[in-house]
Amino acid sequence: MRLPPPVPLLLGLFFLQSVLRPLWGDLVFMPPVILMSGPEVSASLVGGTEDVTVSLTQLRDEMGFLPVPACGVLSNETGDWSLTVSPTVNSLEVTVRLKRGLSSCLSNETDPFPEAPCIVQTLLVSASRHSSCLAHLLVQVEIYANSSLAQNASENVTVIPNQVYQPLGPCPCNLTAGACDIRCCCDQECSSDSTALFRESCFPGVFGGDVNPPFDQLCSVQTARGVPVWFPFLCVQLANSPFLGYFYHGSVSSGQHASFDMYLHTDLKDFSDFGYKQGDPVMTVDKAYFTIPQVSLAGQCMQNAPVAFLQNFDVQCVTSLEAYPERDRITNVKVKNGTMGGIVTPKVIYEEATDLDRFITNTETLLSTGSAPRNVNVEEHYIFRWNNNTISEINVKIIRAEINAHQKGIMTQRFTVKFLSYNSGNEKELSGNPGYQLGKPVRALNTNRMNNVTTLHLWQSAGRGLCISATFKPILFGENALSGCLLEVGINENCTQLRENAVELLGSLIQVTHVAMRGNSNYDNLSDGWLEIIRADAPDAGADPPVSNASGICLDIPAQLNIRILFSDAGAVEGMTQQEILGVETRFSSVTWQFQCGLTCEDEANLFPISASVQFIKIPAQLPRPLTRFQINFTEYNCNRNEVCWPQLLYPLTQYYQGEPYSQCVGKSLLLASFVVLAVFLSNPWSGICKAWNSATT
């Protein structure tokens, strides 16, 4: 089709403009001319796009002349056309759309391929600043009635199913499009009459559409395959679903935005009105989880982890200040107390952090010093008071810090949750009753002076890992651990002072004299199962230390504290094994410290690492019987030296199996034996014997 006379001239001018103006750094459309054949086109406006106004005008050819465009008037709606502007990187994206559909073009058309276009118009997009035209985009519209864009795009789109739920090729024998393939029973193009002709001769297996064949042990294949008589007693009932395994009991729940509650799926039930059980998630009145950030098994900090009833935790989360999630105000949260209609509102107190270096590290230069400061929570401590299966009170202490609104850095947050009985006071918390529970603090006591130290400690480094900023964490029963910190030392460091500092830091971890044998030993009665700590190779502060003649070298500097705790099984209470501590030994290890120099030895502080480790060693209640000479030489029945272990043939009934009580193992074994006997009675040989016996007797 031939364009109107003014249009070719305008096309040439706009093309020349698009070539020269970017070289000058001016505002220009890319491309400057578009031939539009569909309902939508887009172009980019590059250059200085600040304070730019974009308008749309429909040009009408009158007497062979195009009118002069008027700039500065914002017009995003022109007849059947709309204009949208979206900012991008260093440019603006301008989109012109046809508002009405193209169904009117097909209403009276009988020719499927008409030569004349359905819509022929000329549109002009202008960019101006302060009523001054800066750039133009010419859009020549030619839309034909048989354009594929006039149809619904979704009608011809091939939808690829999710391979987790449906295989990509559900019918491999469907080889002919639009026709029925003989013996292909999964072909949807075959009518029911056609399929009835070859239903008994369908292609088997994967080629015939059986892409997920069931295995032979399924109960559903009994009628399809020849199976023995006892098959229904030993078949497998499979309940396979892509949603199996998505629910993780009592821990974390996914989410993107941090908040104190997370809304549940509509199918989940809330039974908190009838009381909580241990491990149940704490609920809010909005039928949502009461959530506090926790650390997952992968080490990631989950912002929306639900709090489980009667389960304490103490975690640390490391996050960037730029990505710090703003948490909702906890004072607005109402928690269900476990009774019908009962509500508990948390009581919150705020404290200001004193030492920000303990929580914020790698601080970078502030982007803006004139912005208002903001508050971040560095520690949150929750105490839940429980009574039977209800929550009676929630106390929260939040330690917050005031930082610049644009401050960068890494922040370490701490979150603790503790469940206490409603009638408990300030008494010391038990670590077990009577034996120790795994993961509870080791109870300790100092008889030389009155202090509040009630356990052994390890370091919990923060910030740069320096000893002066490190905090303490208790030693937990049954958990081996290793911790340390860094001590700043100069080249002219006094060796005696360095030795005293190291002894003092290591000694701060064991400021106790006795350790409790049991988890409920009485602090006021020293004879109630208290063991004195054995201090081996303890450094003598009054002895003359060895002297080195070289500068920057110190001999026999205590650098490591080893704590070994012996424990054993001391019986059982209601079937639960009770464990108690038999002894505790501390031992110091010394090293020779030498100042590390680079190219030159400058008077800059070096970092001297000191560490502490704890090791739990289990002592058997009864010493094992020594092996005889025959057992040492004859290794056929030694499970540790052979691939086949005959002594563990009936493993659930042996002493090596500790997964369940012995009585339950015996009961399940007898039940299994009864099934075997029943299967034998129902088997074909036994049925034949019974029939032969009956025929002989009759």
TrEMBL record:
Residues 1-25 form the signal peptide. One of its GO terms (cellular component) is MKS complex. The keyword Transmembrane does not apply. Residues 273-421, 432-619 form the Tectonic-1-3 domain. Keywords: Cilium biogenesis/degradation, Glycoprotein, Signal. GO terms for biological process: cilium assembly; protein localization to ciliary transition zone; smoothened signaling pathway. Pfam families: DUF1619_N, TCTN_DUF1619. Residues 146-254 form the Tectonic-1-3 N-terminal domain. InterPro entries: TCTN1-3 (IPR040354), TCTN1-3_dom (IPR011677), TCTN1-3_N (IPR057724). Belongs to the tectonic family. Part of the tectonic-like complex (also named B9 complex). This is Tectonic-2 isoform X1. It comes from Balaenoptera acutorostrata (Common minke whale).
